[in-house]
Amino acid sequence: MHPRLQQDLDQFPQILERTRHLAEGFLAGLQQRPVCPPLASQQLQPGDDRLADEGDGALAALDDFWLRYAEGLSASAGPRYFGFVTGGSTPAALAADWLVSTVDQNSQLSHDTVAAAIELATITQLKNLLGLPEVFNGSFVSGATMANFVGMAIGRQWPGQQRGIDVAEQGVTALGPVQVLSANAHSSSVKALSMLGIGRDALKIIDSLPNSEAIDPVALERHLAASIGAPTLVLASAGTVNTVTFDDLPHLLALRERYPFWLHVDAAFGGVAACSPRYAPRLTGWEQADSITVDAHKWLNVPYDSAIQFSRHLALQMQVFQNHSAYLEAPTLRPDNYLHLTPENSRRFRALPLWLALKAYGRSGMQDMVERNVQLAQLLGTALAASEGFRLLAPVNLNVVCFALKNIEGDAVAARDRFIARLDRHGVVRCTPTLYNGQPGIRAALVNWMTQESDIHLALESMQHCLAEPH
């Protein structure tokens, strides 16, 4: 054995203890760590792009990394990171994720690990938490992008089946042009259209309802009536990234009865609201969708990367993703082997962090995270609306606050970007830019399990400070 490998084998306990010490220190300082470290700290240091001939061993490499780059790590796991839609890691999920790397299981159904059984049980518990029926099968994937890809890939297979065409075997050209209809398709769905060979140009934007991001069912029906017979996928939002708007799913389902189409619901973070009796009615009808996306590393607060794709069409899904190899299990119609259900042939034990979190916190714990984040988002929105320097661009529908600077003269985009840059330098709260109804805006998305009312006050203080700061 190489001497450094032998050294690290002998020092395994010390290496793990050192790692625990670094992690403990990081978590202890999370409240004080900048949500956006200085740009200089985010750069690679000279020489660190070169491979050494002789290694230094794990302990030395760990200490060197932490010394050089700890300041370049943001507090994205903390309670005031409101950028994008970024959750944290609950203690149970973090502990599980450490174990995932330690036990290093390939959770494919290989009949030599319990990982596949736990993944299936996690899917079952998640369906129960979110009120989805047993008819749905589910698999873990890396994120909402891949979950949308899987749902739309099955959706591409479906119109072929109606026409006696096996798209997975014959290719999408055998099916011909596909139309994809949405009012506010997420960028990951647009990317999926390219990857699937359907093409970005297949996306037809349907009008939204007045003063809303929700699709206008009348406009959708008008388009469907004018394109009867065209292979069609409808991408519904539950909810949108700017305002957490939910499409009227019962209305879309009624249209599906008259104009058959594949209904995919992108519920990356909004779907988790179904665990709250207060907000579950917003998802009425999603249990009849053809495919659904739910992200776990957002509002379920497990570490990156983790999402779940749900589908009612197991046989179609296996037609698309079946894998044939002499040394792996042959394709069989079963919901517990992602080898034949998703793009990946092998991957880590991705289900364990969510499994352990559900065991640790149960239905009531997940409900608390959702309802507390919504309450705090409403508090933030109310304060911004009452302030002199900010205005809401849209009502606070759930857990995202979409707002803008008030009384701006000149270039509103430049003013917005300067404000966000000052906010980043101040390091207390992280928000991200957006565009809403043609207006430059700012988003604050609350999904972290640790966020408390005190964090909202700190965020508001920082925003007011940065607004008053000289340009």
Automatic annotation (TrEMBL):
Q: Which residues form a coiled coil?
A: none
Transferase: present as a keyword of the record? Answer: yes
Cofactor field: pyridoxal 5'-phosphate
Keyword DNA damage in the entry? The reply is no
GO MF assignments: transaminase activity
**UniProt keyword annotations, A-Z:** Aminotransferase, Decarboxylase, Lyase, Pyridoxal phosphate, Transferase
The family note in this entry says: Belongs to the group II decarboxylase family.
Q: What is this protein called?
A: Aspartate aminotransferase family protein
Q: In which organism is this protein found?
A: Serratia proteamaculans
